[in-house]
UniProtKB/TrEMBL annotation, chain A:
<dbReference type="InterPro" id="IPR000515">
    <property type="entry name" value="MetI-like"/>
</dbReference>
<feature type="transmembrane region" description="Helical">
    <location>
        <begin position="129"/>
        <end position="149"/>
    </location>
</feature>
<dbReference type="GO" id="GO:0055085">
    <property type="term" value="P:transmembrane transport"/>
</dbReference>
<feature type="transmembrane region" description="Helical">
    <location>
        <begin position="287"/>
        <end position="307"/>
    </location>
</feature>
<dbReference type="InterPro" id="IPR035906">
    <property type="entry name" value="MetI-like_sf"/>
</dbReference>
<protein>
    <submittedName>
        <fullName>ABC transporter permease subunit</fullName>
    </submittedName>
</protein>
<dbReference type="Pfam" id="PF00528">
    <property type="entry name" value="BPD_transp_1"/>
</dbReference>
<keyword id="KW-1133">Transmembrane helix</keyword>
<keyword id="KW-0813">Transport</keyword>
Automatic annotation (TrEMBL), chain B:
<keyword id="KW-1133">Transmembrane helix</keyword>
<dbReference type="GO" id="GO:0055085">
    <property type="term" value="P:transmembrane transport"/>
</dbReference>
<comment type="similarity">
    <text>Belongs to the binding-protein-dependent transport system permease family.</text>
</comment>
<feature type="transmembrane region" description="Helical">
    <location>
        <begin position="135"/>
        <end position="158"/>
    </location>
</feature>
<dbReference type="Pfam" id="PF00528">
    <property type="entry name" value="BPD_transp_1"/>
</dbReference>
<dbReference type="InterPro" id="IPR035906">
    <property type="entry name" value="MetI-like_sf"/>
</dbReference>
<dbReference type="GO" id="GO:0005886">
    <property type="term" value="C:plasma membrane"/>
</dbReference>
<keyword id="KW-0472">Membrane</keyword>
<dbReference type="InterPro" id="IPR050901">
    <property type="entry name" value="BP-dep_ABC_trans_perm"/>
</dbReference>
């Protein structure tokens, strides 16, 4: 594709003595020569699936569709079936708990650590960079490790608790505990991201503000409330919104740790969409659920866009 | 606070090491139990007193081929992503057009769309194109997810290249493409490396496309290999952890070799 592009431009280069009209056309066309391949690719492999997913959500799209090519139009039946099922309530509640639980702890711990590492002390830079490691591991590798750590019989956490006389806790096996377990793992995964972004936000707060503030008696908690927090507020909103959007689409961790079980206690919108399409092979209903997921994500995306638009002015 | 001697700040270091220990413990445990033959049997020792590579032998015997599959997919994704994203980033940074702005906005929104949505519609599409259970199919899917981030990251960098530099080359008779290849690309090396590293890491870690778009042992990325282990409720944790360690090697290398790129990339990618 590129080599063809090279030949095209050099042949049409106005400096090769082409007519002025052609030169003008080339000048108009040049930006697109650079951008068009990516636009076409994204349109085919990203745009088309998004549109196709909307179409599928109005169809009865099952395994037989792959053989017959038939996908009867069913209107809103997939959405109706989704919303009226008891599963929908379960997954919505789980998704909300998973998202709110993950984000609030990730953010609070992440901010505390970012504030801590901002105070330069020996090895602070080194320790802070090691802290990023959990973020870079493949999610499914982290899931495997945590499944092992939380193993009821011989997992390290229960062994550790056993030292204090605590009976083995069925972290991922008990329907009342599994969601908390999965949220705990997701908090661990999200802390590095929160620290990294919040730390860079803190670096942007001018030192003079603190010097001036200390003259007015703003130190400690007061300095945080009146100087730090207002200065990093836009970074905070970005972290929170991105965190929500990323958390909503988590599948790896849940499938790896519990597979959505036990008794659907860790099933979220995203894992349920996967189940409908790729376990039950009801692609129509799967599409409907993932479209609901998109709508929820896009609401937060809008918030994000409006924040990042305002950013330069702030 | 800043003028206090290093010794007075030492308790902070101790506290920092403590925090880090808690955060890094799972990673330590992964390495630790990968080196113990009887992981999963009785109690796993806190330290591999009698280290053995049995777990790694099993991991490589079971999953060696899957590592190669993942490597092929990740490298292919990096190549295709850079070939498409680099010129696009330049086109968007240098020529401001209305269409370009719309495309940028679409890329920003695209980053928010769950991969689940794409997988759901890619399956029927790939099914009719014979791209299921196909390395190239996974490269295409991962590239689709990788392009938005790569374009936004590289464009942010290219926007800062002085216009005069490129215009001088154009005056000297170079075409737009010559100027792009011989001036813009070399200057943007750091941004390209960052984009390549992140693309590699996300394609290497991809689980959802592997799970939905493959079903045969012939084409099985390593993430799916790990998933097979843990969903089969294996008790040979040494082999699982050894596989997890090997699958984490790229991340570790990245952290050691490219610390600066990561910090820059994280901030650019997320905040801008």
């Amino acid at each position: 594709m590129t080599s063809a592009g090279i030949r095209l431009t050099s042949a049409r280069n106005p400096r090769d003595g082409a007519a002025p009209l052609r030169a003008r056309l080339v000048r108009r066309g040049t930006p697109w020569l650079f951008t068009l391949p990516a636009i076409v690719f994204v349109a085919v492999f990203f745009g088309y699936p998004v549109v196709q997913n909307i179409v599928m959500s109005f169809q009865e799209y099952t395994t037989s569709t792959f053989y017959s090519g038939h996908a009867p139009w069913v209107g809103l039946a997939n959405y109706a079936a989704t919303v009226s099922s008891t599963m929908f309530t379960t997954t919505m509640v789980n998704t909300a708990l998973f998202t709110i639980g993950s984000i609030s702890f990730q953010f609070a711990i992440g901010l505390a650590l970012a504030l801590f590492f901002r105070r330069n002390f020996p090895l602070s830079g080194f320790l802070r960079s090691l802290l990023l490691l959990p973020w870079l591991l493949p999610l499914i590798a982290s899931s495997a490790v945590w499944k092992w750590l939380l193993d009821q019989e011989s997992g390290a956490l229960n062994e550790f608790l056993g030292l204090f006389g605590v009976d083995p806790v069925p972290w991922l096996v008990d329907p009342t505990l599994a969601l908390a377990g999965v949220i705990g793992v997701n908090i661990w995964l999200g802390i590095p991201f929160n620290v990294a972004i919040l730390y860079s936000g803190l670096q942007g707060v001018p030192k003079e503000l603190y010097e001036a503030g200390s003259l007015d008696g703003a130190v400690g908690w007061k300095a945080f409330r009146h100087i730090t927090w207002p200065s990093i507020r836009s970074v905070v909103s970005v972290v929170l919104v991105l965190g929500v959007v990323y958390t909503l689409k988590v599948v790896d961790i849940i499938l790896g740790l519990t597979g959505g079980g036990p008794a659907n206690s860790t099933q979220t919108l995203a894992t349920n969409a996967y189940n409908k399409s790729f376990v039950e092979f009801d692609f129509g209903e799967g599409a409907a659920i993932s479209n609901i997921l998109i709508v929820v994500s896009l609401v937060f995306a809008m918030v994000y866009l409006s924040i990042s638009r305002r950013e330069p002015a702030a | 606070m800043n003028r206090s001697p290093a010794a007075r700040r030492l308790p902070m270091t101790v506290l920092g090491v403590l925090f880090l220990t808690v955060m890094i413990f799972p990673v330590y445990w992964m390495v630790n139990s990968s080196l113990q033959a009887d992981s999963g049997a009785a109690a796993t020792a806190f330290f591999p007193v009698h280290p053995t590579l049995d777990g790694y032998a099993t991991a490589i015997a079971d999953q060696g081929r899957n590592f190669l599959t993942s490597l092929t997919i990740a490298l292919g994704t990096v190549a295709l992503t850079l070939v498409l994203a680099t010129p696009a980033a330049y086109g968007l940074a240098r020529f401001r057009t209305r269409g370009g702005t719309a495309f940028l906005l679409a890329l920003l929104v695209a980053q928010m769309i769950p991969a689940m949505v794409i997988a759901n519609a890619l399956y029927p599409m790939f099914n009719s194109l014979f791209l299921i259970n196909n390395v190239f199919g996974l490269i295409l899917a991962n590239t689709a997810m990788g392009i938005p981030f790569a374009v936004l990251l590289i464009r942010a960098f290219m926007g800062a290249i002085p216009r005069a530099l490129v215009e001088a080359a154009l005056v000297d008779g170079a075409g737009h493409l010559r100027a792009f290849v011989s001036i813009v690309v070399p200057i943007s090396r750091n941004a390209l490396v960052t984009a390549a590293l992140f693309t590699f890491l996300s394609a290497w870690s991809d689980f959802l496309f592997a799970l939905t778009l493959t079903s045969t042992p012939e084409v099985k990325p390593i993430t799916l290999g790990i998933y097979d282990y843990i969903s089969a409720n294996t008790q040979d944790w040494a082999a699982v952890m050894a596989t997890a360690v090997l699958a984490s090697v790229p991340a570790g290398l990245l952290l050691v070799l490219a610390q600066r790129y990561i910090a820059a990339g994280a901030v650019n990618g997320a905040v801008k």
